[in-house]
């Protein structure tokens, strides 16, 4: 199995006079739904697709709560989730408050085994790939 990529031209946002550079950009070929994932999991396990959906839905409810409690959620060889913030700085420590926080986003760090699987992906240039 291989992942296809296009070639895209990108300028340097910090230097408008710099020459354009060309980069590979992954071509997404579709989407997989929660139902499709549950059916695949069911086909390789003893768990029904209905039970798999129930567990995945419960996970989607529990994960934000765990992150909101300040926890890092470790999922073994899959990886870990935690929160990160985008914030404005203050001149003194006393001036720092929750108002400095502009946004909060979940962060994911893949585990070793998951990273190895992802890093073993074969890439192929899509024919007519410039664009």
Short description:
The chain has three helices and six strands; from the N terminus they run E-E-H-H-E-E-E-H-E.
Structure description:
With 131 residues, the protein is α+β, with helices and mostly antiparallel strands. The chain has a domain at 72-113. The chain contains 3 helices and 6 strands, in the order ββααβββαβ. The chain has helices spanning 34-43, 49-68, 112-119; strands spanning 2-10, 21-26, 73-74, 79-87, 101-110, 122-130. It has a 3-stranded mixed beta sheet with strand order 2-1-6, with no helix packed on it. It has a 3-stranded antiparallel beta sheet with strand order 3-4-5. Helix 1 (34-43) crosses helix 2. The chain is flat, with a radius of gyration of 21 Å. The two termini are 23 Å apart. The mean pLDDT is 93.
Task: Give the arrangement of secondary structure elements.
Blueprint: E1 2-10, E2 21-26, H1 34-43, H2 49-68, E3 73-74, E4 79-87, E5 101-110, H3 112-119, E6 122-130
Parallel strand pairs: 1-6
Antiparallel strand pairs: 1-2, 3-4, 4-5
Mean pLDDT: 93
Lateral arrangement of strands in the main beta sheet: 2-1-6
Percent helix among the residues?
25-40%
Cα Rg: 21 Å
**How many DSSP H or I helices?**
3
Our estimate of the beta-strand percent is 25-35%
* pLDDT < 50 runs, ≥5 residues: none
Q: SSE order, as H and E?
A: EEHHEEEHE
Number-wise, the strands total 6
Tell me the major beta sheet. Answer: 3 strands, mixed
Oligomer: single chain
Question: Which class do the helix and strand fractions yield?
Answer: alpha+beta
Task: Provide the descriptors you would attach to this structure in a database record.
131 residues, 3 helices
């Amino acid at each position: 199995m291989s992942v296809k990529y296009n070639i895209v031209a990108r300028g340097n946002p910090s230097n408008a006079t710099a020459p354009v550079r060309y980069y590979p950009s992954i071509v997404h070929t579709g989407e997989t739904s929660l139902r499709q994932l549950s059916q695949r999991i069911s086909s390789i396990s003893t768990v029904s697709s209905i039970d798999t959906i129930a567990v995945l839905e419960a996970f989607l409810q529990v994960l934000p709560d765990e992150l909101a409690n300040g926890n890092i959620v470790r999922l073994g060889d899959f990886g870990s989730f935690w929160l990160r913030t985008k914030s404005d700085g203050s001149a003194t420590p006393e001036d720092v408050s929750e108002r400095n926080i502009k946004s909060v986003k979940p962060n994911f760090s893949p585990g070793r085994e998951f990273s190895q699987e992802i890093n073993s992906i074969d890439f192929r240039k899509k024919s007519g790939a410039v664009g």
